[in-house]
């Protein structure tokens, strides 16, 4: 948050929706906490019919002159009218206010109330001026009394035309591994385009942000490197834009335990106990689903589980050859830079796999307590 007199203190237009507010310059202030405490009862009645709207605010919150926001204040209502069958979308149970509403909005499609009385306007003599607008003193909404001046024209401010400085700031803020990930991402997305002209134009835009990035992507997607270096000159960065610096809580971390052969039920119970104590989600994955004891069992198979839905993987083996499906599962987790934990026995069976046991984030251990530490990093980007 900033005060009104800070509006022009920055080298970017705070009302430009394509810009971020760098947190090193404008620190985040936590003003509250919203807790999601249950899932919906009915996906269609709730999730599919919910009408999010930028205009749904409470007293004390008002709107800036952000042109995109001003457009959304109109378009969100227009969208819900067509999407949810008319202007009474706010009477659908999931959109209905907690407190009762008493106003003059009547009729139209899908009206859920049967209004009585002769008037639908204010002021009126026939209904004793009811309903009436709730004044501010009684909790009613009042717009912020902002002083407005200037010319109202249909054009963007010149300050909106700085397209590249913040793109460079973002690139400068990333670690080396993240920059490589971004460059490969550009190569993938632009490379999917069939038009050479569009690919060339995309690389031309990258050339205005970072010359080295443009050269890398141009070579990968098969277009010309722009003749001139038009890279914007800036060494600005923001420490909050890199993901590597943040420790992701273990709470809810999802672990796949790959079962190869006959693993002692006590061993699995020990893993289950440690994971549960650390509030991790986990599943034992094997060739066939089956109960091993009353407490533990193989609940997922290689046909029903995928490494993409787990944050990390543990490989257990009884000493026999590892299942091909288990190796494929683990190798994909390894490729995605996720933590990979291998038991001592299983580690001797990975000689011909793509998993390097001495790589960052690869742990060889039989102790469930010891391997939880490996999960404290969401990804090992330096692998």
UniProtKB/TrEMBL annotation:
Q: Which cofactor does it need?
A: heme
The EC code for this enzyme is: 1.11.1.6
Q: Offer one example of a GO biological process linked to this entry.
A: hydrogen peroxide catabolic process
Instruction: Provide the alphabetized UniProt keywords.
Output: Heme, Hydrogen peroxide, Iron, Metal-binding, Oxidoreductase, Peroxidase
Superkingdom is Bacteria
Ranges for domain Catalase core: 1-130
Q: Which GO terms describe its molecular function?
A: catalase activity; heme binding; metal ion binding
- Record carries keyword Oxidoreductase: yes
Is Heme one of the keywords? yes
Classification via Pfam families? Catalase (PF00199), Catalase-rel (PF06628), Catalase_C (PF18011)
Output the InterPro entries linked to this UniProt entry: Catalase, Catalase_clade2, Catalase_clade2_helical, Catalase_core, Catalase_haem_BS, Catalase_immune_responsive, Catalase_large_C, Catalase_sf
EC primary class? oxidoreductase
Gene Ontology cellular component list: cytosol
Family, per the entry?
A: Belongs to the catalase family. HPII subfamily.
Name of this chain's protein: catalase
């Amino acid at each position: 948050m900033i005060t009104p007199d800070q509006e022009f203190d920055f080298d970017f237009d705070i009302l430009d929706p394509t810009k971020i507010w760098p947190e090193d310059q404008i620190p985040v202030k936590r003003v509250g906490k919203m807790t999601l405490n249950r899932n919906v009862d009915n996906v269609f009645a709730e999730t599919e019919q919910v009408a999010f709207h930028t205009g749904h605010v409470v007293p004390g919150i008002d709107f800036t002159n952000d042109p995109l926001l001003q457009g959304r204040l109109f378009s969100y209502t227009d969208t819900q009218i067509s999407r949810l069958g008319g202007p009474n979308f706010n009477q659908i149970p999931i959109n209905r206010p907690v407190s009762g509403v008493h106003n003059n909005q009547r009729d139209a499609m899908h009206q859920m109330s049967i209004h009585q009385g002769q008037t639908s306007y204010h002021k009126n003599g026939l209904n004793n001026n009811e309903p009436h607008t709730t004044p501010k003193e009684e909790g009613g909404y009042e717009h912020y009394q902002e002083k407005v001046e200037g010319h109202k024209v249909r054009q963007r401010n010149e300050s909106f035309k700085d397209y590249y400085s913040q793109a460079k700031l973002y690139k400068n803020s990333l670690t080396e591994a993240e920059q490589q990930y971004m460059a490969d991402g550009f190569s993938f997305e632009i490379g999917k385009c069939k038009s050479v002209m569009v690919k060339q134009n995309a690389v031309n835009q990258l050339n205005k942000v970072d010359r080295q990035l443009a050269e890398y992507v141009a070579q990968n997607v098969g277009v010309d490197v722009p003749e001139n270096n038009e890279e914007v000159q800036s060494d600005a960065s923001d420490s909050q834009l890199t993901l590597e610096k943040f420790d992701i809580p273990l709470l809810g971390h999802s672990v796949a335990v790959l079962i190869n052969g006959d693993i002692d039920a006590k061993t699995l119970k020990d893993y289950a106990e440690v994971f549960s104590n650390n509030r991790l989600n986990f599943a034992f994955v094997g060739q066939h689903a089956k109960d091993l004891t009353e407490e533990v069992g193989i609940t997922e198979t290689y046909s029903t589980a995928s490494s993409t839905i787990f944050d990390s993987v543990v490989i257990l083996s009884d000493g026999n050859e590892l299942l091909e499906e288990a190796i494929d599962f683990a190798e994909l987790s390894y490729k995605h830079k996720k933590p990979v934990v291998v038991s001592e026995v299983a580690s001797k069976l990975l000689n011909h796999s793509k998993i390097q046991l001495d790589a960052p984030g690869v742990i060889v251990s039989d102790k469930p307590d010891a391997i939880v530490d490996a999960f404290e990093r969401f990804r090992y980007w330096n692998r």
